[in-house]
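## retry 2 of 3
previous attempt timed out at serialization; input unchanged, resubmitting
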Amino acid sequence: MKNLQLVDLLGQYDKISQEIDEAVISVIKSGAYINGPEVKKFQAELENYLNVKHVIPVANGTDALQIALMALGLKPGDEVITPSFTYIATAEVIALLGLNAVFVEVDPVSFTIDPSSFENAIGPKTKAVIPVHLYGHAAKMDSILEIAKKHNIAVVEDTAQAIGSHFISENGEKTKVGTMGDVGCTSFFPSKNLGCFGDGGAMFTNDDELAAKIRMIANHGQSKKYYHDVIGVNSRLDSIQAAILRIKLRHLDEYIIARNNAANAYTSAFNEIEEIESPSSSSWSDHGYHQYTIKLKGNQRDALQVFLNDKGIPCNIYYPVPIHKQKGFEGKYEISQSLDTTEDLCSRVLSFPMHTELEAEQIEFITNSVKEFFKQ
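## retry succeeded, writing output
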């Protein structure tokens, strides 16, 4: 059996190495390293895949979130609602722009923002909400959009972990995450479901005016070269990364299928373990399984992690400390409601290896090891 890894990027590369190598060499020989033809082609292909009018590639997913908030014209002191159970970047950009983060609860099953908690947190200074499609599962966007519209609040979707996943409406219609709010943001960090070989990110929107503003902000605020209409930043996806992403985009749906197959194998094995609650898709979402994250019903999470690590099985905790309790954020913003669910999840979640190259033998070894732990 091959050594286990949380993410097997080299195994994935091996299967498409000839295509990748040829694409990279072609860009090098072209001399068009920034905003070259490959970037424009990737942009068009991703627009087609997502069925969205505008894709604006940028340097990374954190930049995407920051630029999106800048483009909405938010002012220092304005409030942005976001879950505390997520990666730090979601709240980091709020703080960097002098905005106030308002942390709310997540649904304990889907790990995504709780619409009722969102609505209860809305105040006179609330200008935006960032629903995070966590671990590959869509947030409940119908409720979120309805609440946001009622209160005139902008919606910035964080789909860094869920590109290719769908929100499913009550009539069964599927819509790609990141395309329903005012703007969607994603990361192409190498470990993502659609990852490049460095840093990269993008924003998506169907709003022509907003798209034009985003493009200006991402390019030093320029409407045309050397004419700077707004204060902007320098955030561009380079051509080599775009060329790699073009190839991997063609495989994204099969990558998601592979992740679902691995997830189904995990879940089938864990069904007999009373102490484990496995993740699953809900009535409003399919699942991209960026992570396969279980919840432990007791207090044995840390002991299980040590036991598995000793057997050479990597597993990780996403996330051990909620954002509102991180040193950089604690005490800076008023917490207006209980975040008991968030804090409970941080003490009980554990993520197993999840990638496109997982083999049946590896999953069997992992699941048998988990069963062994609970039979001790």
